[in-house]
């Protein structure tokens, strides 16, 4: 078994997810390959901070701390990185649970010293109990899950997906932390791409770095009822376009849209074709899925255009911070 120490960071922001947070922590504590520690980073919510501190007061391997930066997921992650003691830092969403061998598969990949990041596969848990008939698997990233079109197995990728991801600590020494001003801030827009931007920045700073997705490292992510509706789908795809514009402005369109070109020219047309075929065969949701794919492309493109204009005018910016060692890293794993 690998001796690499892994710290798990779970960023939380609302008491509405209390039971989900407890389930996420329990899934980490039940790992076949134990985590070195679990860090719960609370995003500017004193009531939640106090409640979690009381909940885990007697649990040595779980630490609760406040986000030391501006409000938002990126700053929360950076706070966790700064105080963590592991050679590898894994990130788990606060409304997700990890399968028992999640960390085992991450650790296995890091036996290659060139590997700087490893992601896994995320399955949706629909609030309604099943996938909406109109919702295309090609757009599961809308609800924070692995989408149809990603290659299976353990494969090298441009970027990992943040809700189920890990990074070698030295990656942050080389590239800096997660950019603030681009990622999630509660339920506000824009809603993503901070992992993409970090991964591109990392491989630019260290060209021989290897980034992987191992689909055996599985988590299950809750999808609340509001996110099963078409209105959320449109909003989220539009926000993705806004965020992608910021990334492309920072790292260049060639790298910033490298994976998206294959996705839009191969994966999505095939999805539309399947939806239309299912409609012709009178299968439920076929026409809806085809229409949703087209809508998703159009709204994302609209967000990208507007985001590009804003970025050129200086109206939308983000910043990258260096990770400074925070209090509580005494005895950090080598």
From TrEMBL:
<dbReference type="InterPro" id="IPR001173">
    <property type="entry name" value="Glyco_trans_2-like"/>
</dbReference>
<feature type="domain" description="Glycosyltransferase 2-like">
    <location>
        <begin position="7"/>
        <end position="173"/>
    </location>
</feature>
<dbReference type="InterPro" id="IPR029044">
    <property type="entry name" value="Nucleotide-diphossugar_trans"/>
</dbReference>
<protein>
    <submittedName>
        <fullName>Glycosyltransferase family 2 protein</fullName>
    </submittedName>
</protein>
<dbReference type="InterPro" id="IPR050834">
    <property type="entry name" value="Glycosyltransf_2"/>
</dbReference>
<dbReference type="Pfam" id="PF00535">
    <property type="entry name" value="Glycos_transf_2"/>
</dbReference>
